[in-house]
Design a protein that fits this description.
Chain lengths: 112, 112
């Protein structure tokens, strides 16, 4: 099983550019989420989804969009990148509302 | 609202010594508590979890944690540190519907 797969692993953007971070899971998990990890701040929830067609905001949603058209995929869109969005992004999924999270390997984004 | 406090962003222990990583939480609902480990340039993986039932929880690699409701704590311990335990450890609380709050993380250094 591949588990949770994130692409790309590394990306450099210029301020104002847009891009999409891809996330796919093959475990048939209903719950998926995006986190950003910054030094000294742990992981902060950006957006999450409890199933196809249902998304909601987390702690730090500004500047990011998500959609969930299938159970497997949960892409994260940066509409107009800013230097403050330089971070490591993790996608995670779970089989229940209170189960453990299964993480991808992360996507390191640098915005110049 | 919920929160997680990890005391000590960096902890150093000698190989063979006791590992103790502290975690205190606040939650308005009965919490589901987790410890995750992150090795360099990797995603997080589950060490152990507390949902209901027995308050002493055993995880992988010889780690365990005890849920103490009266102290709102979920400290992580291991009797004897190995070099391979060097990593960053995150405590997390799930108040339901995968709204998970992470602590800022504790980097464990193991000294030979």
């Amino acid at each position: 099983n591949a588990g949770v797969t994130q692409t790309p692993k590394f990306q450099v953007l210029k301020t104002g550019q847009s891009m999409t971070l891809q996330c796919a899971q093959d475990m048939n998990h209903e719950y998926m989420s995006w986190y950003r990890q910054d030094p000294g701040m742990g992981l902060r929830l950006i957006h999450y989804s409890v199933g196809a067609g249902i998304t909601d905001q987390g702690e730090v949603p500004n500047g990011y969009n998500v959609s969930r058209s299938t159970t497997e995929d949960f892409p994260l869109r940066l509409l107009s990148a800013a230097p403050s969005q330089t971070s490591v992004y993790f996608c995670a999924s779970s089989y229940s509302t209170v189960g453990e999270l299964f993480f991808g390997e992360g996507s390191r984004l640098t915005v110049l | 609202a919920q929160s997680v406090t990890q005391l000590g962003s960096h902890v150093s222990v000698s190989e063979g010594a006791l590992v103790l990583l502290r975690c205190n939480y606040s939650s308005s609902v009965p919490p589901y508590l987790f410890w995750y480990v992150q090795y360099p340039n990797q995603g997080l993986q589950l060490l152990l979890k507390y949902t209901t039932g027995a308050t002493l929880v055993k995880g992988i690699n010889g780690f365990e944690a005890e849920f103490k409701k009266s102290e709102t704590s979920f400290h992580l311990t291991k009797p004897s540190a190995h070099m391979s335990d060097a990593a960053e450890y995150f405590c997390a609380v799930n108040g339901g519907y995968q709204k998970v709050t992470f602590g800022i993380g504790t980097k464990l250094q193991v000294i030979p």
